[in-house]
Amino acid sequence: MSAPAVTSLANAGGTALAAEALPVTSLAAAGLALRRDLTLALRKPAQLIQPLTFFALVTMLFPLAISPQLSQLRQVAPGALWAAALLASLLALEFLFRDDSQDGTLEQYALSGKSLTALIFAKTLAHWLLTGVPLALMAPLAAIALGAPTAALPGIIAAVVLGSVSLSLVGSIGAALTLNIKRSSALLSLLTLPLSLPVLIFGARATQVAISGGSLIAPLELLGALAVLGVTLAPLAAAAAVRISLE
Amino acid sequence: MSPNTLEAENLHLWRGDRHVLRGVGFSLPAGQCLKLTGANGTGKTSLLRTLAGLMYPEEGRVRFCGADVRADLRAFQGSLAYLGHEPPLKADLTARENLRYWIGTRRRLSDALLRAGLARVGAEALAGRLVRTLSAGQRRRVALAGLSLCAVPLWLLDEPATNLDTEGQALVGSLIAEQLARGGLAVAAVHHELSGLGAVHQLELAA
Amino acid sequence: MSFTWFHRLGSPPYVYALAQRLTPWLAWPAALLILAGLWGGLVLAPPDYQQGDGFRIIYVHAPSAWMSLMVYTTMAAAAAVGLIWRIKVAHAVAAACAPIGASFTVAALVTGSLWGQPMWGTYWQWDPRLTSELVLLFLYLGYMGLRAGIEDTQRADRASAVLAVVGVVNVPVIHYSVTWWNSLHQAPSVMRLAKPTMAASMLVPLLLMLAGFTLLFGALLLVRLRAEILARERANPWLKEALAR
Which chains, if any, share at least 3 CB pairs under 8 A with chain B? Predict the structure, then answer.
């Protein structure tokens, strides 16, 4: 069944121009969704600071709980950094779909006649740009605080950039599944953490290699592979989960 | 291709243990409006959502222009506009931005068209204001502007005149009348009378 | 004709009655196989030259671990069928599988820990297989938690089905990354739950236990499935008739 031709809007002084009869592609719609989320977030920047603050806070727990000696902290730096990153990104996931689900705009996306997978991917991309990238930029500070050498920093940034892509993607599935569930933060963590373990393992490994000064190609490739896997599968699963939550 | 007709055939829907829709059926030809009536909880919203393809009936089917909507659900949803209880607007965007990001995902919108759409519902003064600063009635008007900008043959409306005064209710009636005059269809769950429409079909949902 | 069989499998009353009839056919052979396997493994098989009698726990550990994975796959397959073709009974099967699979996982973890104690001196080591089992337990708990968190049964079914399918795709990824992680840190082989090289007298009881556990799963699944159908269809008149009979 083909969509019936767009009828012109009858009003005083306006006629539908030919260009407006051209359909909007899913890609263009996704681009709009991306712009919208970025615009919205930049109007309420306070929300973006929270995950970063949490990241810094968790990082600080380790010296206080283990030892102030940088030489000792350096041993646990990769693990501590990634545990903190994982927890911070979990916190940030709350913002991905919650508002849109509550005000009905998510429903309108599902009804837009465009690929919901593409729209969800756009939202997740926006989310990553707003939370994952800042996390990656803050990671060097945390790494230094945990005793990592300065030479390791570029590698650490690269690892967190790649790893946070996967974290956002995997997280989008959990966030979509737990929409409209009361007090869902614990459940969201329970669902997302097991699925994020490979990112943790490969990311911590990459950080370890960066600190000890080895070649980062292989670890970063592994992180990249996870990201690619996530990009192909996660938006599909998240879109299915969103539709289920709208039923 | 048969003219725009919306048909529902023997729709059965369960929500948990509740049998919400029990064999609902109707046939709505082009240029007609179907008014859904019934007390709260009788399934008006569920019926609208089932027609929109958001809910999946256990039995029965929905046909538009003679074809089962499930055959190409995305295309069907592209030719309908659904307005739920809450106006789908982001509080931190202006009215104009909201319409651009909402309707712009469905069709191309020029500035002129946007302005005309807002003017049609008497909300052109609200264009640059953040939705957060608008009253419930004003938000509803912006949502109605979006509805008319969709330019689709099928409208599914759940209490479209909520929060509107009598003038606003008349506006809803005239918008639907225009939609019908274009050869479109409308299914609306309303509590009040739809003025300015002439004869409408009616479907009463019982508990 | 095969199509009507498939259709019948989607009907709760039919499946309920079928489950009732089939259960003893699975339960008794399961009991026999398990008893035979236990006797063969605990009594007949000779002690391992390396691990002595301690290895015998493999007769419970290995089938439990194997079943924990098999049940998850079955659960995901049933969930996928329910998701794609919208068959309620398939969702009931998936729901019934989860606690059984979780129990097998716990059994695998406990027996794995008990096996490791005489070898490692501690009750726990981050052995790759044990770690993978632990992650699998969390996947089960997440599935059951999601089901419990959503009130509407239909939505709970469909959401947990998506989770099960996502989980089943992830299990190989997780297993690979955990194994890789473990190998990086050069854990000495004595820290692994190494299976002893198997003589036939050791292998046969293991296979018997495996077959027995599989049938046990089948029987438990049918029992739980009937309970699930009871809970879901309680408003339906056919159920009252069936219970009256």
Answer: A, C
- Considering only alpha carbons, which residue of chain C is nearest residue B18? C235
pTM of the shown model: 0.90
Residue C104 lies in a domain: yes
Which ipTM was obtained for this model?
A: 0.94
What's the structural domain count of chain C?
1
- Among the CATH numbers 3.90.180.10, 3.40.50.2300, 3.40.50.300, 1.10.760.10, which is that of B1-79+154-207? 3.40.50.300
With beta carbons under 8 A apart, name residues in chain B contacting C152.
Answer: 15-16
Task: Give the helix ranges, DSSP H, for A104-216.
Answer: 105-110, 116-127, 133-145, 153-177, 185-212
Domains in chain B: boundaries: 1-79+154-207, 90-151
DSSP-based three-state secondary structure for B66: coil
C-alpha distances (whole Å) from B106 to each of A126, B71, B103, C161, C212 are 20, 20, 5, 31, 58
Residues of chain B above pLDDT 70, percent: 98
Which runs of consecutive H residues, i.e. helices, occur in chain C?
2-9, 12-38, 58-85, 88-120, 128-149, 153-184, 200-232, 237-244
What is the phi-psi region of residue B163: left when phi exceeds 0, alpha when psi lies from -120 to 50, beta otherwise? left
Nearest Cβ partner for B113 among A20, A103, A108: A20
B81: helix, strand or coil = strand
